[in-house]
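Weekly structure sync - notes
Attendees: PM, LS, DV (DV joined late)
Agenda: review two folding runs queued last week.

Item 1: First target. Sequence and structure tokens pasted below for the record.
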Amino acid sequence: MPPIVAIVGRPNVGKSTLFNRLARDHRAITHDRPGITRDRLEATADIGGRFVTLIDTGGMDYESEEEIARQIVVQAEVALTMADVVLFMVDGKVGRTGLDDDMAERLRRTGKSVVVAVNKVDGQERSGVMTGDFHAWGFPLFPVSAAHGHGVGDILEALAERLPEVNPETETSQLQTVLRLAVLGRPNAGKSSLLNALLGETRLIVSDIAGTTRDAVDVAVIRGTKRYQFVDTAGVRKRTRITDGVEQYSVGKALSSAKRADVAIVVIDATGGIGVQDKRLISFLDGERKAFMIAVNKTDLVPQKEMQDLRKDIAAELRMCSHVPVLYMSAAMNKGVGKVLPQAEAIWAECQVRVGTGELNRAMRTVMDKHQPPLVNGRRAKFYYLTQASEAPPTFVFFVSDPERVRDSYLKYLENSLRKLFGIAVAPVKVVCRASHKPKE
């Protein structure tokens, strides 16, 4: 595996800002409010010409009695255990604190290679004053401004010098393309619980408090020789109910992650039934022609009679996209979770379907002879030929005399026919009509 660099420190010292700068990506949400980062975030970074796994952790507050704060510390401790090099961040403006001293002592006991970054030092003229107290720990120390980039080059050099020797071929092999899956749903539907069940470990913080997950957290799930990249996202709810700026940004990142993913998983809380926001998510994904499935979670908490009603509600909601598979499960009880990855693979395999133009036109000629397009204002659209324009999703373009005369109901008939003919059962299909006045020569 590539070397691991973990960024640790107490809350609000600028860890996520430096993480984003080193990763050259706005992966982590940054805010003046302490405690924004909760789960540990991972990204690939280039340090000294070598690929490393960079880990951002939540602020470690050993004195807090809050449950989420304690879980943040646990996640950060896991990152420390994994790390080859630790980047310990402190706040130069605030100066050395008792919590900083406690962390420095803990880091010393780990025996890890530690580099201290004294953040928020915006100019050389005050560098000596703002860093002086931190020299007492005896760690290599560098002034830096994560927000403006000052001193970042020195930090990179210091980290590069302390990376362990690893076979470069092994590191490069980890950077292969993987199946990306975005996990979406309303707050507290069980998205993080589902990922923890797939991993077999408490990788993501789970709480009854809605909105625990804020960042879009990348998590690798490895099964045999296969590697899946999950993105756990913040809970998505109606924008008018979002008054918190951090949550609004989190929701935006969640929908953006869904667009970038190969397959999306919409997690529905079975105890609350299918809600308005669940329906909007489904409509959004269907409108984007996104490959997705429904994961109905917490079924262990629902009486059988209510489950029957829920199945009917979901089937009714999926009338216009009936190809979408629905899995019923309990992440807490680890029931039905094993079906998620095989289903995702099946969906993605169908997204790659490619059909030659000749085969398409021969097959569809029979379909249209059986059911011709309806008359619209006394005239019928004439279909000339058909081609597949792209995959993921399979996109089929019909060239017709007048696209305005092709009703949506007939397009749905053509889509269903394509599905039956070419075995596309669970992937989205896009059917488009374009104007053409001459048949293809």
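Item 2: Second target, run right after the first with the same settings.
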Amino acid sequence: MDLPKNIAIIGLGYVGLPLAVEFAKQYNVIGFDINRKRVEELRSGNDFTLEVEEDHLKSVLTDSANNEGLFVSCEAEDLKHASVFIITVPTPTDALNKPVFTPLIKASQTVGKVLKKGDIVIYESTVYPGVTEDICVPVLEQESGLTFNEDFFAGYSPERINPGDKEHTVTKILKVTSGSTPEIAKQVDELYKSVITAGTHLAPSIKVAEAAKVIENSQRDINIAFVNELSKIFRLLNIDTKDVLEAAGTKWNFLKFTPGLVGGHCIGVDPYYLAQKAIESGYEPEIILAGRRMNDSMGSYVAQETVKMMIKKGARIKGSKALVLGITFKENCPDIRNSRAIDIIRELETYHVDVDVYDPWASVEEVRHEYGLELITTSDNLLESYDTIILAVSHKEFLELNLSDLRKDTTVVFDVKSLLPKGTVDARL
């Protein structure tokens, strides 16, 4: 089976860039992104997501779409050189938690305009079963004038990137693949198998592959919701949740999940896609949405419990100073998308608490644009003391902070991530 020579990756974020770099070691790869600033940064070897090191990125960059390596572009015209298109754009939700397909549709329109006979379009974005063939393919047909499964073909291979994880990188995570015909499915599988050292799993259909992806994160969401509920119960019983989980974890088949804030672009979003499809199909999901409600409540819960402890210590609330440690959605990663630390901040603000946010990983400009907050990026700019300190994200830098220098007798310290020694904090989830 002859593999294609030219591959286009549409969307060069946390998912697309690492994939493009790996393919570029063997193929001619056109990396396409509509963000011109992002393209210019990548051309200079700089990846602000920190998923690809500068030397690694520079080693595969090329200045031509016809050369082996990675050619980065924001010009749709350059995509015409490719015969396989891999779409890795975000799939967000709106304010009502409804799926937003705009990035997928626009990416499909862009690809459709350069689609040729025999080409294959593979989607990696997380969706519910049916989106590839029912929503994306019609756009490709309309823009190209070609017929699906006669003139062009489709595949689906869900991304499994874990931002900030330097151990489970793209080539080391087994890849689920699928195609719109048996022959194309094999070709898609062989293509990924050529770069994924962990191997592949060929699903029997695109819909199966779509469903497999969306339940991966839904399962994690539900399990985290369970331990979040436990943390609320055990707090009422004056029992340390971490101690309980460590004791229970000694059983061989106990699933080791920990309580916390559930944000990011996967676990905090994907279950809504599955729930939407279930509702459209006439079924009202119960467990999935209950898990989402529990996890979405944790930020405000932490803030409310913090205020209660401050009152018990005799601290004033209105006009008090709070320090929130971390605004990214997870530790040791600059990604601020769908960060639930913002829920803590917004809830504290309803009590007229002045909040400082310190995060050495996040971008000042992104935080200002996304959340309207002025970020502190170095501990030198912190106040002498705060009325409460909430560790929301377990960045490694926070282990080096001497919190005793930032607190007074009435200061409340809430360790959401159970990162700090138990005796140094007032509460933890």
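Discussion on item 2: DSSP finds 13 helices and 13 strands in the chain.
Action: LS to circulate a short write-up before next sync.
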